[in-house]
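Can you please make up a protein's amino acid sequence together with its fold in C-alpha cell form to help me picture the idea?
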Amino acid sequence: MTTITLVRGDITRESADAIVNAANSSLLGGGGVDGAIHRRGGPAILEECRELRAGHLGKGLATGLAVATTAGVLEARWVIHTVGPVHSTTEDRSELLASCYRESLRVADELGARTVAFPAISTGVYRWPMGDAARIAVTAVREADTEVEEVRFVLFDDRAHAAFAAQLG
C-alpha cells in the first residue's frame, strides 16, 4: 500500500526517486514548478527534453500523459514530466487531471521508483481550484495500482497544504 505524505516546501529541494514536473506540452521549460525544476536541475533536463521532442514526441506531450528524464543535479534520479489540463468552467477535465497522477505513477513503476514527489498539478497558471485539485489528486493516488511506496505531495504554501490535508482526513 502506498503511503501518502504532505510536505510544505519547494519541490526542487526534495530528495526522492522521482520528482514530478507540472510541465507544459513543449517540455522545454516554462514558469512555475516547470521553470523552477529546469533552473535548479540544470541543463541536462532540457537536453533530454529536446531529444524527446526530436524523437517520438515531436508534437509535444499530450495533456494527461507522462514521460521521464534525468533529474540533472536535483536530489532525485528522475523527473517525470506530466501536462495538466487548464481548468474550464464549461468542460469537465477532471479525468485528464487524474490521468496526470496515474500516468506519472505508471512511469515511476516502469523506472522502479519507490518514492515520488508531486506538486499540486494545474493549480498555478492553469487555474484549477485548489480544493478540487486536491480531491482529484488524492483520489487518483489512492486508487492507483502502483508499486510506489511513498507519494509525497510537496505544497508550496499553507493554503495548498490545508486543501490536501483536508482530503487526507
Observations:
- Residues 94-111 form the longest helix (18 residues).
- Helices lie at 32-41, 43-54, 94-111, 130-143, 158-168.
- The chain has a mean pLDDT of 97.
- The domain at 3-168 is CATH 3.40.220.10 (Leucine Aminopeptidase, subunit E; domain 1).
